Amino acid sequence: MRVRLRHDRAAVLAALGLATALFTGACSDGTSGGTSGHGDRSGADSSAQAGSSTSQNEGLVRLNVAKANGIGSVVTDGQGLTLYRFDKDTAKPPKSNCEGECLKAWPPVLADGSVEASGVDKSLIGTVTRSDGTKQVTLAGWPLYRFASDTAPGDVKGEGKGGAWYAAAPDGKKAKANGGGGKDGGKDNGKSSGNSGGYGY
């Protein structure tokens, strides 16, 4: 009888040990999983916040003013690159006529978000919807472009190209030293001045 009790007691203790081990393992796994889950959730939240911040800054355009040799004050983008206007476009109503091959040399200034300006009258800034649905920044109605060959701040290699491309002044007219505006003498009726000569590649 005593032997049997000892065996029974040993069996009970073994069973309790096994149950304790199983319970401890389950709790450990659950706690570990919970911690991991919280960590992943925190990381996801951080990523979401970063993504939200990035998306808010995407498409942001900055317009500034800088001095360019020979033509006075010009409008530049956030990288300091000169911005241009095209005589074959119209300002009233705003319309871009640079399409297809033209865009390779004269990429439009597009805005998917807000436009910030320093030295430029914000009331003159707007956008026009291009034929592909994108929105191009305008200044006094004139669509704005960069010139592909301008690679550094201060470059104005596109000035006068094709007799139709001119750096934009802060008032939206053609930039020119001592005021005035390019070949149209500063007069701007919102229509092409008639200067042609292609896209000025």
Automatic annotation (TrEMBL):
Keyword hit for Zinc: no
Endpoints of the signal sequence: 1-26
InterPro entries tied to this protein: Lipoprotein_repeat
Ranges of Low complexity composition bias in the record: 44-56
Stretches for region Disordered: 30-56, 158-201
GO terms (BP aspect): alkane catabolic process
Spans traversing the lipid bilayer: none
Alphabetized UniProt keyword annotations: Signal
Classification via PANTHER family: BLL4220 PROTEIN
Designated name of the protein: Lipoprotein
Organism: Longimycelium tulufanense
